[in-house]
Each structure stands twice: as structure tokens, then as C-alpha cells.
Sequence to fold (209 residues):
Amino acid sequence: NGQKLFISNVGYGQRIGLVTMDENYKLRELSGQLEKGESRKMVVVIIDLPKEPSENFEVIGYKINALKRIQNVGLRFKDFKVSKDNILIWDANTPEATATKGLNIAYMGLNRGRMALCANASGATLAMAGSMLPWAHKRISMGQPIEGWKNVQERIGLSAGYSLAMRFLADFTGELLDKRYRPEIECEVAKVFGSERQKEVAIECVMKT
Fold:
């Protein structure tokens, strides 16, 4: 029971790994791992989503169009039944066991998405930098093309530099993932740097030029 909000690119008929909180120990009872007096645990459940809405499940649509070709939705579950074989439990008190537990699988997926966002931002930022070149060449102000202005040159150079930095971050975190590390911090840095610098280039460089 519950809702997951603002999920990217998921829909009916897909298989997902759902991270949730085990509030009432029912899932741990099913798996035979309930211990006396234990605190609530994080649980990953592998779910094959139904192919159409029902009283137990539906996809919630949002009118959010921040990025083209990305569908943001929510998932609503009500008395949704899951096989106990699909429950992957991670115990916060035994971090040494996470290599074979569900949360590790979920983190790896999140890290790949963060790395991919940085890589996408690198390409988009480079495209924005390139879009300023012909405009700066043909736009005449005070009798000359604005491509000769220092502030315009700085904007183009900054945009290209940010794109290169994002590219290196994406390559670096991608290599760590390929080597089976868990680079949570590195991938979070890549995501934040990529998204924030892409926004800066769009507003402070492209629009002002």
C-alpha cells in the first residue's frame, strides 16, 4: 500500500525494483526473517507491473514537461500482492551483507541514472555552446558582430568548458560502475554538477547572448 511520486519513464507492463519501508514487518514475516524487537527495515520488491489499471494498481500522470521525451508519473498501490520470492531485504545493521541484498541492486540503478544525466547534460551543453557561434557571428551591435565582445567570448568558452568537465565526470563515474564499485557520492556529484551547470549555461550564457 502506498504511492511513489515523480518516477521517470515507467509504465504498465514493466518490471521494476521498488524501494519501500517495512513498516509493519509483514514482508519480513513472509520471508521468515522477522526478529524480536527489530526496527523497521528498507525493503526492495521486484514487481511486474500489471498491463492495465485495476483497483490494486494505477499509474498517475503529471503534466510536467521539464525535459523532452521523459515521462514523469506516479505509482499507486492498494492491497497489491507480491510473491515472497520477490522480496529482497537489506538490514541496515549488517552493511557487510549488502553486496547480495536488494538495496545494492537499487543503488546501482540509481547511480547509472545519475551518471547518464551528467552525460546527457554534457552533450546538451556542448550543443548550446555551438548554437551561440553562428548567432554571435551574424548579430551586429554598435557596428560589429558581438562575437568580438569579451563577455560573449567568455560565455561560449565557459559553456564549452562545462561540457568537457561533465564529459570527464560521466566517463569517470561510468568506469567506476563498470568496475563494480558503488560510487554513490561520485554519481551524486556528477548529477548535481551536470544539471546545475546545464541550467546556468542555458540562462546565463545562451539566453543572455
